[in-house]
Amino acid sequence: MPEIGLMGGSFNPIHRGHVALARAALDSGKVERVLFLPTGNPPHKREGLADKFDRLRMVELAVAHEAGMAVCREEIDRAVRDAQRYAAEDAKLKAEATARDRCEQLIFQAGNAKNLSKDDKVRVAEAVKNAKRAVKSKDAAQMNEAAGQLETLLNEVGVHIDPNAEYHGSASYENPNNNFSDDAVDADFEKL
């Protein structure tokens, strides 16, 4: 079975040193082929990183005429699959955050309502209670429905809804995807 050397990296950009290292591995006789594996979205390199497809193309061009060298696009393809897989979850979290912010803004506005009749105060208090329950549910549809009812009621009782009121959203929201821990290790070479 032929020995294959793997050379992973961001290749941002690939340069002669990368190719020379691969050539030295081939010339050593210990490997018959070197595969370059450009990373998709490395978590430790965000600033100034060229697009993953541009970096892949640069590597393809750099090794196109190099005997024994090839490019593996598995990491790039995995990054695309991950992005597609998480797109629905991200959309759900965004919808939830937007609905929650709308509810909380209207609850804040209701709290600043002045000169309401006793009956209107009771109706607004009940609508606020429903909106708070909806926020606790974390269900975007339920929050939007409660916000719509509260907004309609506030308009009905003559409360001016000021979109520029000094409300700055909930400070308690934490993105559930922020539990990333870096467990990367430096590469070691060993013959398999």
Tally of alpha and pi helices: 5
Mean pLDDT: 85
What is the succession of H and E elements? EHEHEHHH
Low-confidence stretches: 170-180
Spatial extent as radius of gyration? 28 Å
Cα-to-Cα separation, first versus last residue: 11 Å
Spatial strand order of the main sheet: 1-2-3
Tell me what you see in this structure.
With 192 residues, the chain is mainly alpha-helical. It is 52% helix and 8% strand. The chain has five helices and three strands; from the N terminus they run E-H-E-H-E-H-H-H. It has helices at residues 16-27, 52-63, 74-111, 118-137, 140-156; strands spanning 4-9, 33-38, 69-71. It has a three-stranded parallel sheet, sandwiched between helices. Strand 1, helix 1 and strand 2 form a beta-alpha-beta unit. It starts with a strand and ends in a 36-residue tail after the last helix. Residues 170-180 have low confidence and may be disordered.
